[in-house]
Amino acid sequence: MNISINTIAQNNLRRKIFRSIAIAGAVMVVSATLFSITTVMDSVELSLKRSIQRLGADIMVVPKGSEVKAKASLLSGEPTEFYMDNTIEDRIKKIKGVKQTAVQLYLLTSKYRCCDVGEMLMIGFDPKNDFTIMPWLTESLKRDIKDDEAIMGRAITAFQVGSSVTAYGRVFKIVGMIEQTGMKFIDTSMFLPMDGVRKAIEESKNKGNKTVNIPENKISTVLVQVTPDMPPSRVAIFIEYDIPGVTAIVSEEVISTVRKQLFILLKSVLSISVLLWVMAIFLIGLVFSMIVNERRREIGLLRAMGAKKKDIFQLIMTEASILSVIGGLAGIVLGGSFLFFFKDFIRSSLNIPYLWPEMLQFALLIYLTLLLSLLTGAIAAFYPAVRSMKMEPYAAIRKGE
User: Fold this and answer.
1) How far apart are alpha carbons 48 and 231 in whole angstroms?
2) Looking at residues 98-114, what average pLDDT do you find?
3) C-alpha–C-alpha distance, residues 138 and 154, integer Å
């Protein structure tokens, strides 16, 4: 009898194809919702961690009044410009708890003919003191970067290593790509040695194109690494107290704030998903109770032909398992497709970094979703299956007539 359980279950599901589709559909909706939400939560968590690592700095010092633009640039990749005096870096180095500093200069490309790409952020950095760009190249450069060379964020697919890009009349050769982070501030920017940016600024005045007027003594931000014995928040207080006119943004606090706000939203959606899951269990259980009642005569005949109680139990549970797995797989495909095709919309709507989970983590999410789908069917069908195996053959045949 055990050999034919799966065959009987499949035949039963084919006989009532519409009902089978409805049950699998209920599981699909639940699994698609839960898979999508957990994948987004995992993706955001991964992206936020990567963002902190790629930024490489515990503190980001910007001109006072520019903190909103700086945070927007960090989180959503919104290109922006702001400037302060470069002597601020030397003053920061003297503050207690500061281990290392690196300066950056922001410059927006123009829509004019001077630049190959419009509205892209060019970030000038000092290769000698850099701890934010060079360590994250997909392939190590193994030499000093020249002032006519550039490094591209991974999301700028129009340019590859070996190609060239023109900015303000100066041609830069692409010599490296940065690993993808999900953080648009890094993934959609072009990184240049500070000397290269300065020369581009000077050449813009001689090419007859859009002129850039940024004094040589200006920088946009100072990135700070703190010593292990000092919390970044405390060092940030020291910086703002000792240096008027600047704001010290603690990287971890920015990420923590975003994480808390976003996870409150996602947990609310997750709560609704759990409610849907409970409702699906109830509805599927109700449908299987109706199925058992409809098939009393069939169950009685199977018992009369020698089927054991456990065979009847296994039959109902097998039907539920087949529909649950089909619904779970369909839900994963549906949820995964939604996330893939609408990832840019999700990223722009949430205004946060977004990166697909790593392969092992993604496989684990798929496995857990399938397990939950199987569990959904098992829980829903358990009571009807127990009822079915308790039916006496003669009584079941009589009541089923």
Assistant:
1) 20
2) 80
3) 9
